[in-house]
């Protein structure tokens, strides 16, 4: 999965789903837990990362 960029959502209990957890671990996906407390910071972080990636493609 080199050079594949993916942004997705998974439900809260993904750690209890063995197949999904194995997939996340196998490909090294970065999982960010979104909470009411961190949602603004996560939004800002994702905006920076996505903006940086998109600017590389132009």
Q: What is the count of DSSP helices, taking H or I runs of 4+ residues?
A: 2
Overall number of strands: 0
Report the biggest beta sheet as strand number plus sense, adding barrel if it closes: none
Global Rg: 13 Å
Along the chain, the helix and strand elements come as HH
End-to-end separation in angstroms reads 22 Å
Strand content: under 5%
Mean pLDDT level: 82
What would you say this structure looks like, in words?
With 58 residues, this protein is mainly alpha-helical. Helix content is 48%, strand content 0%. The protein contains two helices and no strands. The protein has helices at residues 18-27, 39-56. The protein is flat. The model has no long low-confidence stretch (mean pLDDT 82).
Secondary structure elements and pairings:
Blueprint: H1 18-27, H2 39-56
